[in-house]
TrEMBL record:
<keyword id="KW-1133">Transmembrane helix</keyword>
<dbReference type="GO" id="GO:0016020">
    <property type="term" value="C:membrane"/>
</dbReference>
<feature type="transmembrane region" description="Helical">
    <location>
        <begin position="125"/>
        <end position="143"/>
    </location>
</feature>
<feature type="transmembrane region" description="Helical">
    <location>
        <begin position="263"/>
        <end position="284"/>
    </location>
</feature>
<keyword id="KW-0472">Membrane</keyword>
<dbReference type="GO" id="GO:0015297">
    <property type="term" value="F:antiporter activity"/>
</dbReference>
<feature type="transmembrane region" description="Helical">
    <location>
        <begin position="46"/>
        <end position="70"/>
    </location>
</feature>
<feature type="region of interest" description="Disordered">
    <location>
        <begin position="1"/>
        <end position="28"/>
    </location>
</feature>
<dbReference type="GO" id="GO:1990961">
    <property type="term" value="P:xenobiotic detoxification by transmembrane export across the plasma membrane"/>
</dbReference>
<dbReference type="Pfam" id="PF01554">
    <property type="entry name" value="MatE"/>
</dbReference>
<keyword id="KW-0812">Transmembrane</keyword>
<feature type="compositionally biased region" description="Basic and acidic residues">
    <location>
        <begin position="19"/>
        <end position="28"/>
    </location>
</feature>
<feature type="transmembrane region" description="Helical">
    <location>
        <begin position="304"/>
        <end position="326"/>
    </location>
</feature>
<feature type="transmembrane region" description="Helical">
    <location>
        <begin position="423"/>
        <end position="442"/>
    </location>
</feature>
<feature type="transmembrane region" description="Helical">
    <location>
        <begin position="347"/>
        <end position="366"/>
    </location>
</feature>
<dbReference type="InterPro" id="IPR002528">
    <property type="entry name" value="MATE_fam"/>
</dbReference>
<protein>
    <recommendedName>
        <fullName>Protein DETOXIFICATION</fullName>
    </recommendedName>
</protein>
Amino acid sequence: METQENSTLHVPMLPNQHRSNDMDSHRPEQLSSLKEEIIVEVKKQLWLGGPLVSVSLLQYSLQMISIMFVGHLGNLPLSGASLGSSFASVSGYSILLGMGSALETLCGQAYGARQYHMLGIHTQRAMLVLIGSSIPLSLIWFYTSNLLILMGQDHEISAQAGIFNRWMIPGLFAFAILQCLNKFLQSQNNVFPLLISSGVTTLVHVVLCWFFVFQLNLGSKGAALAISISYWINVFMLVVYINLTTACAATWNGISKEALNDIISFIKLAMASAVMICFEYWSFEMVVLLSGLLPNPQLETSVLSISLNTCWMVYNISVGLGCVISSRVSNELGAGNAQGALLALRVMMVIAILVGTTIGLVTILVRNVWGKLYSNEDEVIKYVAKMMPLLALSDFLDGFQCVLSGAARGCGWQNLCVGINFGAYYVVGIPTAILFAFVLHIGGMKNENLVLAGALDGNHMWTCSSRDSTGYN
């Protein structure tokens, strides 16, 4: 027996012949296995993607619905609410959203590594930091009108924006908690409670807006108050669910003193995450602030805010896809499966192409009627229609950027993202917008090229960085 084995091992065989036989015997099995892995991954992402995209859209829609109600009160209230909402995003929402996204790295990898109790610890730690951060941010909101006037904005519009933001201050603290709860459940792939709570909140919010704005005649104050109440309703439902369900029994063990440990390390990651998100979000909102310096600021601010609200609404679909890939990548890396993380990213890129193409086509098709949802003014409606093709292209490109950004958060590459977003939006995007709007005097429509320029340059920089760092294509 031993002689036969030795003789078999020494049978001469050409290298090419050996390689050919080996490939022929293993290739069908490898292809079949890869196909099964892709199918399984697609199912996982679709299972997560539908709810997370819906959650992202529903939670963002609170601000959009409020602005829609205010828009039917006239151009000045619409301009004030739009400018106030933009300022609130720049000085509050984007910062807390960015800080909360640190949990995508920490909770996602902890869940993949089966360190389940750490999800509750990370979440409690994040809540402490985000609630503490909300205190100085609320002071900034309180003085919104003064700060906007110092920036050279129209006095009437700034006064309206200040009133709107003061009534949103109670909701800022709820928003901080909500971001932590979102990431806590998202990292466990437990997304349907998020969908249900967000759906119920949105329905209640529509009723609240109608009641406060038109029945109690509170105007823009009522629309802002409705946002605050709605965020707290969403938080309340999620807190009740997490404390009562058995699905979170292993990941939430109640309040723990352990959350007070290592806060500095969390703050460092949270700040990097916040800067990463803010560099992108601030550039979009800066378009509305710049529009207030153009001739006929009420028209320009109204139209650009409608355009960017639309852009943000669609962008939240891409944000949902980014949350999916962030969870998948962080879970796989936490489990020590780098190849699984790479497969997840490649599958998501294909999904992003399909979704982006569909969104772009729909955006173009509704361009002539979309402005009517926000305003009764013919001038505003026609101006919005001219903006929509630019938004369609921008929305398509943003899909890739959100997916790559989500994958980077899953890997914990927030510091890398900071440099990329800074180059895309502040070296290319904003200077281009200023050139078109104030040097060449082309107006607000070309100011919208900030979105397109940033998206184009951002995707280019992301692609180069991803290839250099990981070999992704």
